[in-house]
Amino acid sequence: MTYVPNDRRYDTMKYRRTGRSGLLLPEISLGLWQNFGDARSPDSQRATLRKAFDLGVTHFDLANNYGPPYGSAELNFGRIFADDFRPFRDELIISTKAGYDMWPGPYGDHGSRKYLLASLDASLGRMGLNYVDIFYHHRPDLETPIEETAGALASAVTSGKALYAGVSNYTPEQTQAMADALAVHNIHLLIQQPSYNMFNRTIERGLFPVLDKEGIGAVVFVPLAQGLLTDRYLAGAIPAGSRAATSATLSSDRITDAYLERARALNEIARNRGQTLAQLALTWILRQPHITSALIGASSSEQLEQNVAALDFPALTADELAEIEPYATDLP
Ligand SMILES: NC(=O)c1ccc[n+]([C@@H]2O[C@H](COP(=O)([O-])OP(=O)(O)OC[C@H]3O[C@@H](n4cnc5c(N)ncnc54)[C@H](OP(=O)(O)O)[C@@H]3O)[C@@H](O)[C@H]2O)c1
After folding, report:
1. Which residue among 61, 303, 305, 331 has the greatest number of ligand 1 atoms within 8 angstroms of its CB, and so is best to mutate?
2. Where are the alpha helices (H) located in 36-107, listed in sequence order?
3. Would you call 205 exposed, middle or buried from its count of C-beta atoms within 10 A (0-12, 13-18, 19+)?
4. Model confidence pLDDT, tens digit, residues 68-92
5. At what angle do helices 172-183 and 146-158 cross, to 10 degrees?
6. Ligand 1, from 232, 234, 275: best to mutate by most atoms within 8 Å of Cβ?
7. 218: nearest Cα among 20, 73, 10
8. Ligand 1 atom nearest residue 249's Cα
9. Which CATH number applies to 15-230+279-315: 3.20.20.100, 3.10.310.10, 4.10.520.10, 3.20.20.70?
10. What is the pTM of this model?
């Protein structure tokens, strides 16, 4: 059936400015890492993307290797985009990345100009797009001179195949170095995409001053710790179909007594606020003014809807933050 988006889609979503730029991003964005590969139901993929756009989620994040198999998330997204979203291209921020292993041989990985620009063309082809809004270098490459990687990102922008450049998984020092290397081309490093959640607070130790100084935004991934900060595993079991049951990226070994104790304590704090644990985890992330957007994953439109509803709740009080603090520490 032809998709007709909700005409009230911009009524409630909140948007934040991405560093010192003209670009606003929704406080919650949707990533297509694990739930848009070929093993996932096409109907569920379509429903989740439609629900997101209907709720004002204007940002969809991809990478060349999302799937599985590699490339399939871009292909599946491209099909849905062609059917449902093409008339709304100017209302969407679509990102992709290159930097991890993608194709065999020496030119399908890391940070060379050869790899990045070939990969961007391939991503555009799979998605059926003329351009992406943001093109990221997916992870730092210590072997390739940063000037070469920056030159490739700059070419992506000046060629019009990407509107903005970003980096992901860079340390504060590497982020500064990329901002400097892009400045040589008169290009602003728009955005950094690091991991951040209650169980991984690494970026609080040094990234924010660089973001401030260079006017860089931050869209943070795995805000729900791949589901550990939801009610998925609170009973201590691994539900069939869950990420811990189906994906190598979340080992069932992580459902330990120490984890359960913390997650249940956080869940209790969430319940006292009338929220779910997932919603509390998102409210907590968005307390940080440096964060432009929390980049969630969702395996159903219901999860997506519940997560976006986190934005309906008031900010955390100083007392609530203090109550959360002992449980919001790095989890091995
Ligand atoms: N730049 C990078 O290196 C990098 C790395 C990783 C991710 N990312 C980006 O970040 C995005 C998000 O990553 P992620 O999917 O790991 O994020 P996440 O939001 O931390 O975890 C998503 C998973 O949590 C569970 N979940 C979500 N909402 C739920 C709810 N309301 N109730 C119960 N369970 C819920 C689902 O697990 P089930 O599948 O078990 O239902 C879902 O698949 C990716 O799609 C990608 O765009 C980037």
Report:
1. 303
2. 42-54, 72-80
3. exposed
4. 999 999 999 999 999 999 999 999 9
5. 50
6. 232
7. 20
8. 16
9. 3.20.20.100
10. 0.98
